Amino acid sequence: xxxxxxxxxxxxxxxxxxxxxxxxxxxxxxxxxxxxxxxxxxxxxxxxxxxxxxxxxxxxxxxxxxxxxxxxxxxxxxxxxxxxxxxxxxxxxxxxxxxxxxxxxxxxxxxxxxxxxxxxxxxxxxxxxxxxxxxxxxxxxxxxxxxxxxxxxxxxxxxxxxxxxxxxxxxxxxxxxxxxxxxxxxxxxxxxxxxxxxxxxxxxxxxxxxxxxxxxxxxxxxxxxxxxxxxxxxxxxxxxxxxxxxxxxxxxxxxxxxxxxxxxxxxxxxxxxxxxxxxxxxxxxxxxxxxxxxxxxxxxxxxxxxxxxxxxxxxx
Length: 316
What we know:
The protein is α/β, with parallel strands linked by helices. The chain is built from eight helices and 16 strands. It has helices spanning 75-81, 116-129, 148-151, 173-178, 193-205, 222-226, 251-257, 292-297, and strands at residues 2-13, 16-23, 37-41, 47-51, 62-67, 88-91, 106-112, 133-139, 158-162, 185-190, 213-216, 232-236, 242-245, 275-284, 300-302, 307-314. The radius of gyration is 20 Å and the shape is globular.
């Protein structure tokens, strides 16, 4: 973790604050790829993940956009109500789970609300590389749309859909995607779960291959995160010992109780920091970060949410 100073806090939209984080000595920050995120350790003892929304080529500052979650568990509420310019926060190295596909002929971005943050950095990267892109930005009210002045310079490449200005009608994803049928285009979506589900369904209807559709989730689905399952056994090959994982506990819980200090962060299957190698056994994957190919290979799991069937041998 790196200690950075909050050099600027700005209101980007209703319920959204923009943070600028810099080194105290003015040094350049670690490089990141467009779409990356960082862990931020807050002064209230909580750790949260936020996307970097700035230009990856400008490493004097990390820019974050933080929306105030209605059901905040203390993270976004702390930032909105207590964090001040001049405060220090601990920030991890950037991690890349959602980025531009290298072989894409062009990029179609779909953002909902605070989901604009990772996509904004991807737009900056496209501009520097000269790669074609378009954005559909969906919000319920215009005053809840962040970074509009920054996006305004891109003209017709940005389509802003405001529900309240269209009698509450949601955006027509089929029409938007149907007008962009180049087989080399890739689709990227970040936003609330209902929007991402709708985008996945629309892409399937339009015949857009799943390999060309990419999602970034900033919150796990509550029902999936809370769901448990049957008890199973884990064998720790490196640490030694076997432990039962009961229905109401995660593998991570059991590792910690056994004295195994395993890395972790979000506890929701969103950040990949707790990934553990699996040497044998059937995995019930419940994360949001592994690809279909990685799941089918069965070589690793996110121990904060995923479970096993029978016995799992872990490279732990």
